[in-house]
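User: Predict methylmalonate-semialdehyde dehydrogenase (CoA acylating)'s structure from this.
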Amino acid sequence: MTRRVSHWIDGKPWAGVATRSGEVFDPATGRVRAHVDLAGPAEVDEAVAAAARAFPAWRDTALSARTRILFAFRQLLDARKDELAALVTAEHGKVAADAAGEVRRALENVEYACGAGQLLKGGFSENASTGVDVYSIAQPLGVVGVISPFNFPAMVPLWFVPNAIACGNTVVLKPSEKDPSAAILVAELFAAAGLPDGVLNVLHGDRDAVDGLLAHRDVKAISFVGSTPVARYVYETGTRHGKRVQALGGAKNHMVVLPDADLDQAADAAVSAGFGSAGERCMAVSVVVAVDPVGDELVARIADRIAGLRVGDGRSPDSEMGPLVTAAHRERVESYVVAGVAAGARLVVDGRDVTVDGAAGGFWLGPTLFDRVEPDMSIYTDEIFGPVLSVVRRPSLDAALELVNANPYGNGTAVFTGDGGAARRFQHEVEVGMVGVNVPIPVPVAYYSFGGWKDSLFGDSHAYGPEGFHFFTRTKVVTARWPAERAARPGSARPDLA
Ligand code: NAD
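Assistant:
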């Protein structure tokens, strides 16, 4: 008997019997560690109904009471962060240090949401016309759906949930069915922090659950993070059903290395950003653009560092890179290595030969490095989402910018250089939402917002930070005129004041 991971509805574990379930693996051993219930229409209705029932009281709960719960949740999350990180490693496979980093970034978002009192202040214009005041109020939307991917099972839900509930919404969270347990621990900690029943519900499932949320008339908004084809589908379907949707998609992130860059710093960055979390990050660097003449030297330094990278079970403190999330995903990533060789790219390091410090059944694939990759090869055009790094060579900064801007994705990018003028031009001209200057993974801190351009985001609001608060509220503007104070009007003096 394996463990069962079930929904969390109305403040408690779901007591029903699921008609469908999925397998949850331990990627470092390849064994099934749990079965997860997969929701059908009845469970979607149940979760949305719980959230809808909880909404009127939650939206009327004093802002100070809402933020007190967020502060309490923040304390509990901090106290239990190791447990949450261990769950992430057990089901996703990323090494302990990566999992701890994920939880740290999640905590930052909770801390931001604790400032709701400040963030929800509206504007006020006295005497916009004589005796007329105009002011704005930010109100919650109602029930919102949050649909998250497998690669950050703790952090991505916590990009949205704290901000959504801080604004007075209630939530149905549909985490990835590949690593569902972290979301349940989050819901338990919220309950322990005093969040009323029904304000946060966790619904496990796959496409059926997503479709149910997209079509449900009581769901007012959807925050989605996942691959580009699904993000596009979620955006189109959700908006067709009249919902507010932000749908963050996939990526192909380029790191441009100019000839005057510190090559050791650039090589370190390429390895940590290319292979950290086994390349399963939407902000992973998957393309290094080496601007002539640094190509040979840079490739040699990256290859040297890869040779020292320890691949193994994420629970071991010695491991620096873990397995891929499932056997099917591992096969898909490996098929790109085959395709890259067939297309004529130079395979500098072959991850299929890796020696692993872990169980034979794990979903292992070592860091792989290709050089002399061309833009028409599938290893360049497709998001591989694994430990495969491609080096493309370009003759100049102009040619590098042209390459980055021609790519349909626009999530993250970085430039490595010692020249401030070149960096400034790059940040100005590059058509990408998040830019690093000598920083390979420029994930914005919680008080900025996270989001890519082009096929990396559908909708007009980025995630978390100020744009997150904007997404989870709608503004009402009141224009008010009051008659003059009664006591001042002739013949209308109040007897109690006389
Ligand atoms: P995915 O698109 O397969 O799944 C994301 C979510 O959608 C999951 O909850 C899943 O159950 C659901 N889903 C899957 N297929 C669906 C379908 N056909 N219809 C409706 N719902 C469906 O993504 P994933 O493999 O879990 O995550 C990896 C992807 O997410 C990568 O492309 C990565 O770049 C992207 N990602 C993007 C960001 C970002 O901020 N832009 C952040 C993290 C991950």
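The chain has 16 helices and 23 strands.
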